[in-house]
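Example 3.
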Amino acid sequence: MDGGWEEGGHRGTVGQPEIEAHFDRIIRGHGDALRRLARAYARDTADADDLFQEICLGLWRALPTFRGECSERTFTFRIGHNRGLTYRARRRPEPDEIDESVADQAPGPETVLGASIRHDGLLAAVRRLPESQRQVVLLSLEGLGNSEIGEVLGVTENGVAIRLTRARKALRELLGPDWGTG
Amino acid sequence: MTAPLDREWARLSRTWRGLEAREAGEADYGALMTWVRQWRARHRRRLLWITAAEVGITLLMAGAVLWVLLRWREPVSIAFAAAAVVHAMIVWAFTLWNRRGLWRPLGETTRDYLSTALLWSRRQMQAAGFTAVLVSVEMVVVLLWAGLASPAARPVTPWSGFGWVGPAAITVVALGWALWYRNRARVRLTALERLRRSLELE
């Protein structure tokens, strides 16, 4: 937050070319997932682009500390979510977390979504979820199992399962008839 | 989960993962690498300037104290120099104590990351409070010294010619900064506590 305590710095014996190669590999492998994560945390597309850059920067700075104690994917998502939370802590809380530009297109639970706006509808619904549910949903949608989600967030597998059940129920209500028709 | 639910979730997952491909097309990761390299160069320059400023200020203060001691070899000047050294020691001791256990890599779990962020905000508030108390106490000491001591017993410093404008200005600026810094840290702390509650990590 404001630099300082999260300044990982480039310590250790890992050389710059190795870090660059590792960074490049992670971004090519998980870049799209991190972009989606940024869009789910940010208020609008411009903010999402900024947040994505911040996540990449965080990844770059943290890479020298990566010792393989968890999987590369877990490590990457931890940084993405932690940066997302930093973004959330910086901005003022709002009663409705939905991006207005998406909300204009995104129908409420009672409306059937057309195929062309299905993505925006899902994004809007994910953004509407409470913080604890949004995190598990984002990670689950990216294909992480409960155990891996627990490793990212620092909660037990059982805790993840409980949250995910609640989150799916909430998401189903938000999506209405569009649930599962993606 | 049951099989139908699994299938529904798998469909949603496919929709979700198709999001970025639809929005951004082929991402330009070459430009991103260039941006990260530029940021790294800027960051190094910034660190260099900060280090230079810290060393510069320390040398300036040490030089001023030394100059006072050499120029006016009187007990009052020695007392002033001793006070300056004590001040520096108190500030450094507090700074080091206040920073203990604050560094954590970004790759920590969300729970650990938030705990450190909360601790960081609390320490920022402590630093602001410490600054306010320190400058207030020092101002009282300086005023008492100036008010009670005879002119001969007042310390001669490089800024004596400016009267009390200098110390008063420093006090006002320091108190203003402490207030602003504390308020900023409090806002951040509130936001982080709200996040932790909403994440059910307590």
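Confidence is low (pLDDT under 50) at residues 1-12, 97-116 of chain A. Chain A touches chain B through 65 residues (CB under 8 Å).
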